[in-house]
């Protein structure tokens, strides 16, 4: 039985056609929810993982969706304030304020209690990474 080489599997994943960076495969449901009004092709979609690239999603057949066509910003492609928790609409600035300014949070549990971050269950629909 032939064994699969991980590098061979990874190399077959499509790269962003603009920046040549490997992406993260996301569910079609994620793209449909975050890109209303855009006609989607069949097949898998990938989130471009390059912070400097203007592409949000792409397919292996060449369809690209610019990041500015998404309903929400992609946190690692934008400057603060950016969403940390898309479900509860909590930003990095809000968490910073609770930890460094108000000094009311020192643990993840404190942050969850004060902001609601990471307590939602709609990541597939609201987070560009689908997680």
UniProtKB/TrEMBL annotation:
InterPro entries: BFD-like_2Fe2S-bd_dom, BFD-like_2Fe2S-bd_dom_sf, Znf_CopZ
Coiled-coil boundaries: none
Signal peptide start-end: none
Annotated Pfam families: Fer2_BFD, zf_CopZ
Residue ranges occupied by any BFD-like [2Fe-2S]-binding domain in the UniProt entry: 84-122
Recorded superkingdom: Bacteria
Domain CopZ zinc binding residue range list: 15-71
Gene3D superfamilies for this protein: 2.20.25.270, BFD-like [2Fe-2S]-binding domain (1.10.10.1100)
Protein name: BFD-like [2Fe-2S] binding domain-containing protein
Organism: Thermosyntropha lipolytica DSM 11003
